[in-house]
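Quarterly update, task 2.4: iron/sulfur cluster-bound model.
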Amino acid sequence: MILSKDTFRSNGNFNYKNIQKLKQEINKLDLGIKLSDDLDVFKKTITIDGHIIPNSLATHPMEGGDSDEKGSPTELTYRKYKKIARGGSGLIWLEAVSICKEGRSNDKQLWITEDNWRDFKKLNDLIKKSAKEEFGEGFEPKTIIQLNHSGRYCKVNGKRNPIIATHKRVLDEAIGISEDYPLVTDEYLDNLIAKYIEAARLSKKAGFDGVDIKACHGYLLSEILSAYDRKGKYGGSFENRTKLIRDIVHKIKTDKECKGLLLSSRLNIYDAVPYPDGWGVSKTEDIEIDLEEPKKLIRLLANDGVKLISITMGNPYFIPHINKPYDMGNYIPDEKVIFSCNRLIKEVGEIQKSIPEVSIVGVGYSWFRQFAHYVGAGSLKEGLCSIVGFGRESIAYSDFARDILQNGEMKLNKVCIACSKCSEMKAKIGTCGCVVRDSKIYLPMYKEMKSSEVSTNE
Ligand SMILES: Cc1cc2nc3c(=O)[nH]c(=O)nc-3n(C[C@H](O)[C@H](O)[C@H](O)COP(=O)(O)O)c2cc1C
Ligand code: SF4
């Protein structure tokens, strides 16, 4: 397929012919990536607060934009999670689900409510049933639902409806937010706590094992972490900037109806935009990583019962190569792809090693294609994370875990090729999936999207 040259550029191809070549490159560049062929490490179970995750492989959240207008899953959603469940990962981390109407990233984002939680129960039941059918009654993957408010990336009726806690120069400019655009009030943020609790209660009723209080990728709870200039109780000091996520976690932890939920968070540790716009960054001009505050927050969350954290970085709307290193995308980053993967793997490792009491889910593996399991095994062996997570791979190659655990391989003709077409679909039409490996469903959608672009351009 020929890619439209105006939007997509090649960032060089993944071209390691064998694992030796990859090893040589890692050594030559003196990277922190580790390799291991001891794949038994993936068979290790992880127990957190009585929840047993049956192996050390996870699927990362991948927003599919395929809900109906009320936020309920549709056939496309059920299909995706059935495939994922039949794939054999021990931890299935569901995609971003909105906690309120105005907080949706688009009109097709999942949104859990009092009226539709039974549809989410149907989804969770389907996941559990499909996994058991495939691997036997004794196999039960744990499910985490990702609760989110999209903040500056909210869209309602197809139009941007940014809800911002603070101005961020570079990010404002990128989506046309003017200097006088109003900030969300403290009262609005106070009221969000009840909405998160309500969403967590509904998630519990729907049968999910855990909830993720998402604070990454520039969405509302992520943005507040760097609200250095905001006045009032949610801005300024570290205590104020982290107050909202800590209050939400604490309230869910102590809520009777949420009892037994596995508490987790998907957390940015580095925004990769300069101070004072970014979190986890040095105050110098060159945007160095500074993990002091992220570590402090993780320790505080752990004290309040958050024992499972999925780490990530960056902002997919602004600098996507940081959180999903790619071979093809709409700009060419100023670093080799392997450096972007190395940053993720190494810094996740720094967190895991400093805070061993929390099980950390690692990221940065899909780009390694047919060698990704060796990289993941290397990370587990080295203690760089407790669980290896795959994002794009989970929609390209939904049974990757089965192939790793049962056959000791990842098949070349099934792996994600980091072409960014799923991301392009998400950005342009909301609905997305793997255009390359799930082409029967998603290639026609992708082609339609491209042809309507051509006609709009003409
Ligand atoms: C199309 C698409 C949708 C995504 N949706 C979510 C999401 O809902 N929540 C989230 O935390 N991350 C989301 N991500 C990020 C992935 O979970 C993951 O962090 C990223 O793809 C890097 O992992 P990988 O290299 O294994 O793909 C999404 C990524 C893509 C490409
Ligand atoms: S479209 Fe498929 S192959 Fe391309 S990046 Fe997305 S998941 Fe990977």
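Highlight for this quarter: The first strand starts at residue 9 and ends at 10.
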